[in-house]
Amino acid sequence: MPSSPTRPQEMQVLALGMSRTATYSLYTALNTLGYKAHHMAELKNTLPGTHALWVEALTAKYHGHPHCPKTANPSHAPYGKAEFDKLLSNYSAVTDIPCIMFTEELLAAYPDAKVLLTTRNEDTWLKSVSTLFTTLLSWHWSFVSRYEPRYPADTPFHVRGYIDILHIVWNLWTGGNWHDEEALRQTYRKHYALVRSLVPKERLLEFDPRVGWEPLCRHLGKEVPDVPYPNLNDLPFTIWFHEQLWWAAARKAVVSVALTWGVPVLGAVVAAGWYWYL
C-alpha cells in the first residue's frame, strides 16, 4: 500500500450495522456532528486506486474462503492498524461496507472508538438488501464494467472496482447463492452477535435511527443539532442514484468500445443500455 501522511485525526466512531440499516442516514448524521465519515458512497469520489486496495483487503482477509475470488496467493497479508490508518487516514468515523467486513480488525485497531450498531427489522432488511444487491449485480452493470480498464489511475470512480467489492461482499453474505435468503438471514444474525460479543455494553449503542438524535448524541457526547435527523437513501432513491452512476460509466464505456471495436459493437452497447433503462 502506498504511503500516506500521518492521520489528521483519530478514528472516533465505528458504526458497524449492516448495509440497508439506515447507514447512509447515519453517515450523513455523523458528518453533521463534525466527524468525517466513510460509507460505500464515498467510493464514488475517493483517491485513484482505493477500490483496488479494498479488494486487496477483502481477498487478504477471506483468502481460502470458498466464495471469495480465487487467488493463488493473496497479494497482501491481512490488513491491520497500519493499513487501515493509511486507507482511512482522512476519516474519523466508518459506516457500511466495505468497512463492516473488518469488524474484528477495526475494533482491535481502534479500541478507544465508540461503537454504533444500527438495527432494523430482519424481514424488511432482507427484502431491501436483496433487492438492492441483485439489482446492482445484474448483467448491465457487469456488461459496462468490462469496457473499463481495471483500476485506472486517472479517475477516482469506476464501475469495475465498485462492482468487484459488491461481488465479494454479496458472495460472502449469501454463500455464493444470491437467492439463499436463509444464508443471508444467518449472516445478519451472526454479524450482530459478533459485534455484541466483542464490544462492552458501555462502549456500544444499538441504535434505531427512527428514534432520532438524542440517544446518538448522548452516546457520542455531542450537542443535539437544530436540524431534523436525516432520513435518506430509501430503496427507490438508492436504485435511482446508482442508475446515474451507471449512465456515467456507460458513456465512458461507449467511447472505449468505439475506439477499440468500432461502430457495430458500439451500437450494440448503446442498444443494450437503452433497453435496460426503458
- What portion of the residues fall into strands of 2 or more residues? 5-15%
Name the helix and strand elements from N-terminus to C-terminus, one letter apiece: EHEHHEHEHHHHEHHH
Question: Spans with pLDDT under 50 lasting ≥5 residues?
Answer: 274-278
The gyration radius over C-alpha positions equals 19 Å
Report the sheet with the most strands, covering strand number, pairing sense and barrel closure: 5 strands, parallel
Counted by DSSP, the helix tally is 11
Please count the beta strands (DSSP E, at least 2 residues each).
5
Helical amount: 40-55%
Q: Specify the structural class.
A: mainly alpha
Shape: globular
Report on this model:
With 278 residues, the protein is mainly alpha-helical. 51% of the residues lie in helices and 6% in strands. It has helices spanning 23-32, 50-62, 81-87, 103-109, 122-136, 139-145, 159-174, 181-198, 213-220, 235-261, 263-277; strands at residues 13-15, 37-38, 93-94, 114-118, 204-207. The chain has a five-stranded parallel β-sheet with strand order 2-3-1-4-5, with helices on both faces. It is globular, with a radius of gyration of 19 Å. The model is unreliable at 274-278 (pLDDT under 50).
